Amino acid sequence: MFAGLLLLVGAGTVRAQSLALNELRAQARQEQIDSSRVLLLCKISDQYWALSTDSAAAYAERALALAQRIKYRHGEGEALNRLGAALRESNLARALELFQLSLRLAESIHDRPLQAQNLRSIGIIYVYLRDRKQGLSYYFQALRIGQALHDEQRIVLELSNIGLAYDVFNQLDSAQYFQQQAFQLAQRLHAPTNYILYGLGNVARKQGDITQARTYYRRSIRESAALRHLRSSNFAYVGLATLYQNIGKSDSSIYYAGLGCQAAQANGFLRGVLNASTLLTQEFKASGSADSALKYQSLMLTMKDTLFGQEKVMRLQNINYQERQHKAQVGAERSRMQARYRTYGMLAGLVGLLLIIGLLIRNYRQQQQANATLQASLADLKAAQFQLVQREKMAFLGELTAGVAHELQNPLGFVKQFAAVSTELIDEINGAQQLARDGKLEREILDGLKQNMLSISQHGQRATAIIKGMLEHARTGSGQREPTSLNHLAEESWQMAYQSVQHEHPAFTATLTTHFDPDLPLIHVIAQDLSRVLLNLCTNALYAVRQRQLTTGAAYQPEVRISTRLLSGSVELTVSDNGVGIPEDVKAKIFHPFFTTKPVGEGTGLGLSLSHDIVSTGHGGTLTVASKEGEGTTFIITLPPSAITG
Q1: pLDDT digits over 264-303, tens only?
Q2: Do the beta carbons of residue 277 and residue 259 sit within 8 Å?
Q3: 3-state secondary structure of 190
Q4: Sign of torsion over alpha carbons 275, 288, 259, 187
Q5: How far is 51 from 53, CA to CA, in rounded Å?
Q6: Angle in degrees, CA 53, 169, 317, rounded to 5
Q7: Strands, DSSP E only, in 113-211?
Q8: Is residue 468 within a helix (H) or strand (E), and if so which, with residue range?
Q9: What is the rounded distance in angstroms from the CA atom of residue 151 to the CA atom of residue 154?
Q10: DSSP-derived secondary structure letter, 603
């Protein structure tokens, strides 16, 4: 899925690596000239970038602090770029901000090589985000600067990056052309080709040339190992694993994907970990290794959450907005300067003065229109990113639920089957066999065994119903509204939540008090969606009363109350508890996405947010909360008249 994001050569790439890290660190200890020391620290950061991003970031920060202290502008720009490269995996938004700062500094001091380096770095981020137009635009700007400077080493990097970008967007002819150009020039310069070989291997694999692709990947692996370049090792290993997956060699695919995952984890290369763990999850699922599949799926979801979480997406969109706002401010300042010069030239006459006033009014209106456009753009971006993150989270949860449900269904089928067979055998024994010895006692024992078998069968049927519900939650697309008994749905949701909590905490008990309106008509809702809401509210209520029980002791009796009633033109359902309650400062954020008060590992912060969305957006109703800390909480669902009339 994410193999196309295996990118790219950036700032801090291995440029011949003629000096070992020990030698560079020794030079840094001896160097007396501060400006030279800044550049030396940047070189050390370059070397570590391929080995450990944390170490690369530490040396870049040292270089930046020294450059700012001595006011060394060129060194400050180099250090900002290195720091952005080191942080690109863990904080994409911050990396983009650093690259933009470095680019503006380079433009202010007319440092063309540093401009090219930052253009390439910004291009990498836009290709990460699948923005083809922006990414290639920055790459070609960097290439033009390299050609103008006649810097052939830089040209190799830019050509290879362009080739890898075209590979991401599956334009294989263009990808092959630029990679071959880069390879020929690199060979003439005796420069490293580990990234280029990986790119050529990708093209050959996608074109179906298995032998050629395998050769390129293995050459890239050997060269990466010789350069001690963990990041490009990850690319080549995962490329080779993907090749073996395509031709059905699962063992080889798992082996090389595992090596790629290890290399990426050692380097701190989160995207490399994501790509390798995604492939390993697919292979272990296909082979039926549930434990290994779940392990790597958990790792994959963690990487996705880190790289594409809502807060980071919002931050990144904000930085894009700030950059456009900065450009707009620069343009406005330029317009003001031009208007001022025109004013000086036309002070001699009234006609000139009137013309200046007209120009100023026009510029003011244009600026107002530009500001309005930027505000509208920001609102659109926020809405788009919110929908994107919600879809991603639901897709991940749905995939995990479906996998667990399918894994449980087979053994439950066997439980039901053998329970039924056992019951039939016992019927035959009781009906046909003449019992010897104490027949009455033996018959009582057999009757008890039969009752046990019936219980097994009943519980198997219950588990099947639960699995059916899980599979329904995992389906994509919107469900159909159908007449539903709200009382029955609430009762069923409570039983599922209570059984789940008791399974995890067998000693825990709670009292359920129901006040169901017997005259409540069937309501037209999406049953599986509303069931998800009720299950979440009941689970939260049980969690709250159990937390209070842990701190209060035996004198406290946990209780959950569920009620339904028909109002004038609407339906109301309440779920109340006498648990720990919700503080006032928390209550205002309770429906925010990803906000949770539970400890790490016990909650994702999505339950109440999704429940609110299902009730309000999916059914046109409202979900509100009333609570008093230390006394309890009540959630109130109100459904509109359309739910009654259908």
Answers
A1: 888 878 888 989 999 999 999 998 888 888 888 888 888 8
A2: no
A3: coil
A4: negative
A5: 7
A6: 60
A7: none
A8: helix 439-474
A9: 5
A10: -
